[in-house]
Automatic annotation (TrEMBL):
InterPro entries: Ferritin-like_SF, Rds1. It comes from the Eukaryota. This is Ferritin-like domain-containing protein.
């Protein structure tokens, strides 16, 4: 059974990653760099505040863990790749959205209800930060739908592991025990298009390709699509009218009806499909 300490250390692992990302990005990009990329001075100033928020989250989680007498995870080493201001902003939107999904999925694992207010408060802050980045900074849709998409610790760790190089061997266990196979999706992927996914099944014992399907986790529910040819990994993405809006988490699963750690093979990979709420073709998704 997962302990509260493992859940809190899992959350702390994610907060360490966010702090490292913002610290590195803000050290690399001055106010002038933001201005040259076309962003107002207030944008960088707000990122300073976001960094402060994440540092405060770390302080809180460490304090709670120490109060429980539990060991506390330390920061790992990370590689965020080569980014410019625009890609830094895009990555920050993804991190904040993933953070909200992480807290949404992990809250139910907490055994002591007294821990829920702090977790819920951090969740709402992550969601607010995501909304500000997507709407004010990127001029995209501020949300994806009526609900956050909850992800399991292992699903979240699969995303985070793309940026984690190494963690201290002395770190205690966290709620996430492993990452699933990485899932690569072409940048041309869009609602209604057919694309070829990439993942390496040789790293697993799974071999029955006919059982595989693609799951799209959205704020409007989960959509399942079959591969057009299992051996080619080609799949047609749902359309926006079918609910593929905003942030979508794509996974390969061995089921056509449920997405759990037991059914997940590869992914999730987060994608963003901006939409216009005034689009008449989407009216059915936003009933008055």
């Amino acid at each position: 059974m997962i302990t509260d300490a493992e859940v809190l250390n899992y959350a702390l692992t994610l907060e360490h990653l966010e702090v490292a990302f913002y610290t590195q990005g803000l050290a690399n990009f001055s106010a002038d760099a933001f201005a040259e990329a076309g962003f107002a001075a207030a944008v960088r100033a707000n990122y300073d505040e976001i960094l402060s928020h994440e540092e405060t989250h770390i302080t809180l989680l460490q304090s709670v863990l120490e109060g429980m007498g539990a060991d506390v995870v330390q920061a790992c080493t990370y590689d965020f790749g080569s980014v410019d201001v625009t890609s830094f902003i895009a990555m920050s939107a993804a991190f904040e959205t993933v953070g909200a999904s992480a807290y949404s999925g992990a809250s139910k694992l907490l055994r002591h209800r007294s821990l829920l207010p702090a977790a819920s408060s951090i969740l709402s802050t992550e969601a607010r930060q995501s909304t500000w980045i997507q709407s004010t900074v990127q001029h995209l849709n501020p949300w994806s739908g009526a609900f956050e998409v909850p992800l399991t610790p292992n699903q979240i760790f699969t995303i985070a592991s793309n940026f984690i190089v190494e963690c201290p061997s002395s770190n205690p266990p966290i709620a996430a025990t492993h990452a699933f196979l990485p899932l690569s999706i072409p940048s041309t992927a869009a609602p209604g298009t057919s694309v070829q996914l990439s993942f390496d099944l040789t790293e697993t014992s799974f071999s029955d390709l006919s059982e595989l399907s693609v799951a799209f986790l959205t704020s409007n529910g989960t959509i399942f699509e079959q591969f057009s040819s299992p051996s080619s990994y080609n799949v047609t993405f749902p359309t926006q009218e079918e609910g593929l809006l905003g942030t979508v988490f794509v996974l390969v699963v061995n089921s056509t009806s449920e997405v759990t750690d037991a059914t997940t093979i590869a992914g999730p990979t987060p994608l963003m499909f901006p939409f216009n709420a005034t689009d008449q073709q989407l009216e059915a998704l936003f009933p008055n």
